[in-house]
Amino acid sequence: MAQGSDTTLTADIKDFAAGHGGAKAVIEYVGKRGARIVLVGQDGEWSDQFADDTVKAREACELAGVEVENEWERELMEQMRPSNDLWRSMARRSMAR
After folding, report:
1. Is 64 domain-assigned?
2. How far apart are CA 5 and CA 7, in angstroms?
3. CA–CA separation, 66 vs 10, rounded Å?
4. Domains in the chain: how many in total?
5. Distance CA 7, CA 92 (A)
6. Which range of residues forms the domain containing residue 43?
7. Burial (CB count <10 Å: 0-12, 13-18, 19+), residue 53
8. DSSP-derived pairing of the beta strands 67-69 and 23-29
């Protein structure tokens, strides 16, 4: 697993969900790198983890008790609150173009 062992990934997902009042996940296939698990907490904070493939990503979420959404729903996206650091990094990228 790209992030460490299956147990570590599951523990990281559980910790995030516990620290943010619960969470939902969206799993994205990212080619040879594997799968990206985007976690969105009930409080709007978000994080991501990486797994070797989408099957392991789904298994880790299931073991952690986190619901996996099939796609990005508008309600889930509206719940996300990007950090100030993320806004600054996005601004730097657009200014560099």
Report:
1. yes
2. 5
3. 10
4. 1
5. 36
6. 6-95
7. middle
8. parallel
pTM: 0.72
By C-alpha distance, which of 15, 14, 13, 19 is closest to 37?
13
pLDDT at position 73: 62
The tokens describing 74, both together, are: 């508008």
- CA–CA distance, 17 with 40 (Å, rounded to integer): 8
3-state secondary structure of 41: strand
Contact 52, 35 (CB under 8 A): yes
Structure tokens at 90: 């996005």
Q: Residue 1 falls within a domain, yes or no?
A: no
Q: Which residue has the tokens 């990486």?
A: 50
In 3D space, the residue among 18, 9, 11 whose CA is nearest the CA of residue 56 turns out to be 9
Tokens representing 70 are: 């099939």
Is residue 68 included in any domain, yes or no? yes
The string of pLDDT tens digits covering residues 70-94 is: 765 666 666 666 555 555 554 554 4
